[in-house]
Design goal:
This protein has 239 residues and is α+β, with helices and mostly antiparallel strands. The chain is built from three helices and 16 strands. Strand 8 and strand 9 form a beta hairpin.
Length: 239
């Protein structure tokens, strides 16, 4: 095995051994699923420390890892692994960025940006802040939004076709407290990229559909399909 190469480490949480429980802990392993078989690559470079409840995002051939919990601390370091060479790199971000957290989401929103939302701090605070990380500039910038009264942890997030990030589910309070967990069914929508010209054209076509619908069949099939889908959504909302 090449110098500096490794498959990662696992560190047990000594407090978790109870009865027949084999225990839990933290690791920095990478596994690959090729839709039939899992494998574990041999990596090189300075791997991130073992952790749990972190978030990952893929941009190009890089897999980014931010934050997570190690013992009683929630981290705010950022690493990426080159998925061609399987070499780890730690990003040194000089600007002030997000506080350490776990149970957050990390969503790629463009070839150059990753969106971070929510999470849980070392001091057991549930967060509602949002950040954009610029890959080319290696810079965090806080993202202002209207959901500051909707803290969230342990949620899911995905990017939409028109520059949005959709956040759903999760918990809105301290999941580790003795009070009942406040699970959320609210859908949060963040518009993090400008709308495309195609989106504006579709909005205009829908707004003036009584005048333009007779010409829709002249459109390329994929645009006509998208328009009919949008029209179906409008009709469903109006019914």
């Amino acid at each position: 095995m090449a110098q500096g190469a490794h498959r990662g480490t696992f560190e047990y949480d000594e407090t978790s051994f109870m009865g027949d429980n084999p225990g839990r802990g933290w690791n920095n392993h990478i596994h690959i699923l090729d839709l039939s078989t899992w494998s574990q690559p041999v990596t090189k470079g300075n791997a991130p420390s073992p952790r749990a409840a972190h978030a990952c995002a893929k941009v190009g051939n890089r897999g980014y890892v931010f934050g997570g919990r190690y013992r009683d601390y929630r981290l705010n370091d950022l690493h990426y692994i080159d998925m061609d060479s399987w070499e780890w790199h730690e990003m040194s971000v000089p600007q002030q960025g997000p506080v350490g957290r776990s149970w957050h989401s990390l969503t790629p929103v463009s070839p150059d940006h990753i969106f971070l939302f929510g999470g849980f701090t070392t001091y057991r605070e549930t967060l509602s802040d949002a950040w954009l990380y610029c890959v080319s500039k290696n810079k965090w910038q806080q993202y202002k939004h209207n959901h500051t009264q909707s803290p969230r942890l342990w949620h899911t997030a995905c990017s939409g076709p028109d520059g949005e990030v959709f956040v759903f589910g999760g918990c809105a309070n301290n999941l580790l407290s003795h009070q009942r967990a406040a699970h959320s069914k609210e859908l949060l929508v963040f518009t993090v990229q400008p709308k495309s010209l195609v989106w504006f054209c579709m909005e205009a076509a829908l707004q003036h559909r009584e005048l333009l619908a007779a010409s829709w069949d002249c459109l390329p099939k994929h645009l006509l399909h998208s328009l009919k889908q949008r029209m179906g959504g409008i009709n469903a909302l109006g019914s």
